[in-house]
Amino acid sequence: MKIVSNTSPITSLAAVRQLELLQQLYRHIVIPQAVTLELTGAGPAVPGAKEVQTFGWIETRQVRNQALVQALRQKVDPGEAEAIALAIELHADRLIIDERRGRKIAASMGLKYIGILGVLLEAKNSNFITDVKPIIDDLIAIAGFRISPRL
């Protein structure tokens, strides 16, 4: 299964010590160079910065289609733009992305996506975690994660 991730799912899950769920569920994830730079450029204080440099199951790849990246950057940040472009290039099974605008663009380009809440539900259904609510509470309290009132 080919999985590409944007920055915020990695930082949020790392902040609440649940990043390993991505490995348990998907075994291997790919991130674009811009995501790596967003994570590591601000220093080791960013949750996930150390992990993307040391975990072998997180692979950084360069996006080839820079014209697409530039077009997408008119609408979303560099990490999202490269994550969407890389997911297209790799024919990814899923893109892990939480930002609403990025999800809309991904869907309009025919990509399947999932957010952190979907990842947590998959982890629960796969018996990697027993309860979703405590992790959601931690995401809100520790990682500043925002959830739509509709959810």
From TrEMBL:
Alphabetical list of InterPro entries matching this protein: PIN-like_prokaryotic
PANTHER family: SLL0658 PROTEIN
Protein name: PIN domain nucleic acid-binding protein
